[in-house]
Write a structure and sequence with these properties.
Shape: globular
Distance between the termini: 102 Å
Number of helices: 16
Largest sheet: 8 strands, mixed
Strand order of the largest sheet: 6-5-4-12-13-15-14-16
Strand content: 15-25%
CATH topology of the largest domain: Rossmann fold
Number of strands: 16
Radius of gyration: 31 Å
Helix content: 40-55%
Length: about 450
């Protein structure tokens, strides 16, 4: 390990953002993307640009080479943007890229943004192949030691310097929650959107919990590192199925554009920490390169085997361990039992849906006939209530009771969510039964007269 305290040589790349100064050599993740695709996370920029008002003011913390800020100024009406970078080797490159490619009023700040209430920062770390991973967290890890910038500034002080702001972006490698905790009132300012990096870790769940406490809408947006419409038109992906993700505080999920859908972007509303855990669980991070040539069914087959605890290297071999209960003889038995339970749920839901449809149809027909009788025969017809109820023979109220009993027997062994939803559907059936009895009594009374 060694301390970086000097500016590394740079080179120029032609990119979607214009001519960019990047670190010399190829041992840098984002530089590799810029060289291969001519862009980095441009789908992220497109998503945020669509949310910017005219004349927006933006603060970009963790700007690195400036791709986010420069891209935003090319897609949205930005009047001012401030880019902050703490890595001393990246700051000069950021300054050169901003001067070359940004035409609106802008400022580059080389400083470490901190929470004044936290212990003093003694240094940072970065991975050898990713200068953008620079982190000054106390528990940061990496192979490269990063010098602490001479200038340190509190997060709240920095924000006040450039207010008003429409967007604050924080990509500070795990320091997001620490910085935000120093300015709790700022999070409640509905005039400011917050865009925060969301990595796959417990820190992201903790961050989401704090953001949800504001009561403002929270949106999860994830995008593939491989943009099919990339600047160079490259079809070969560097990391198959790899996704980046972020949390947006202050705006509800918007409908994905056709371009975002084609790329495979994901968006959903987050209302609890569990929502975020589920979203991250369903978001790809990376996968073997050979999966690129497989179809969805083949991938599902592999994923199903992996989810069952099986490994390709000992699949179907005599030494293969069997993690399922002893009551189940083989993996195939376990899958078949699960498939049978799922099939039974589908059948019950279908029957309940049919009963519910008949109930609704009977209500509509009853209302229609009452209306027609009233219009043709007047009040006398309404008093007699001589109404034929279509569908009476087709609908058997006893079916509801039998279905209820079937569902009850499944509650201890089948997904509770499905059972609850089905039970709610059954609970509506007695209303039909009472309505039919009422009409039949009226009819019988009229016949005796």
């Amino acid at each position: 390990m060694h301390l970086i305290d000097a500016v590394q040589p740079s080179r120029i790349l032609d990119t979607r953002y214009g001519r960019l100064s990047v670190p010399h050599g190829t041992a840098d993740l984002i530089t590799n993307f810029l060289e291969h695709y001519g862009e980095w996370s441009f789908l992220e920029v497109e998503y945020l640009a669509a949310l910017m008002p005219a004349g927006a003011r933006v603060l970009d913390l963790g700007a690195y080479l400036g791709t986010f800020s420069i891209g935003l100024t090319k897609l949205a009406d930005i009047s001012f943007i401030c880019m902050v970078e703490g890595n001393p080797t990246s700051a000069p490159l950021l300054r050169a890229n901003a001067a070359e490619n940004i035409r609106c009023t802008h400022e580059v700040v080389h400083a470490l943004v901190v929470n004044p209430n936290d212990p003093p920062v003694k240094g940072g770390w970065a991975h050898a192949d990713n200068a953008g991973s620079t982190s000054f967290r106390p528990d940061a890890v990496g192979e490269i030691r990063i010098q602490v910038p001479e200038v340190q500034i509190g997060f709240q002080e920095l924000v006040r310097r450039f207010m008003p702001l429409n967007l604050i972006k924080l990509d500070v490698e795990g320091m997001e929650e620490s910085l935000l905790s120093s300015a709790p009132e700022l999070l409640k300012d509905e005039s400011v959107l917050f865009w925060l990096e969301c990595n796959e870790g417990a820190a992201s769940v903790s961050l989401a919990r704090r953001l949800l406490e504001t009561g403002r809408p929270l949106t999860y947006f994830a995008w593939p590192s491989h943009n099919p419409d990339n600047y160079r038109g490259t079809t070969r992906s560097i990391f198959p199925f790899a996704y980046e993700a972020g949390l947006l505080l202050g705006a509800a999920p918007s409908e994905l554009t056709q371009r975002q859908v084609r790329a495979g972007c994901m968006i959903e509303r987050i209302t609890s920490p569990e929502d975020l855990r589920e979203a991250l669980w369903r978001t790809p991070r990376w996968a073997p390169s050979e999966w690129e040539t497989l179809g969805p069914r083949q991938i599902a087959g592999i994923a199903g085997h992996l989810a069952s605890g099986m490994k390709r290297e000992d699949f179907l071999s005599p030494s293969c361990a069997n993690p399922v209960p002893a009551s189940v003889r083989t993996f195939e038995d376990a899958r078949q039992q699960l498939a049978l339970k799922n099939a039974r749920i589908v059948r019950l839901e279908s029957q309940l849906a049919e009963l519910s449809n008949k109930y609704q149809e009977a209500q509509r027909d009853l209302a229609q006939q009452l209306h027609e009788r009233s219009r043709s025969h007047g009040d006398a017809v309404r008093r007699s209530a001589e109404v034929d109820v279509p569908g009476q023979a087709a609908y058997d109220p006893d079916d509801a009771a039998s279905l209820r009993q079937a569902l009850h027997s499944m509650q201890s062994s089948v997904t509770w969510r499905v059972a609850v939803r089905a039970s709610r559907m059954v609970d509506r059936i007695p209303y039909l039964k009472r309505a039919l009895r009422f009409v039949l009594r009226k009819r019988q009374g009229s016949n005796t007269r």
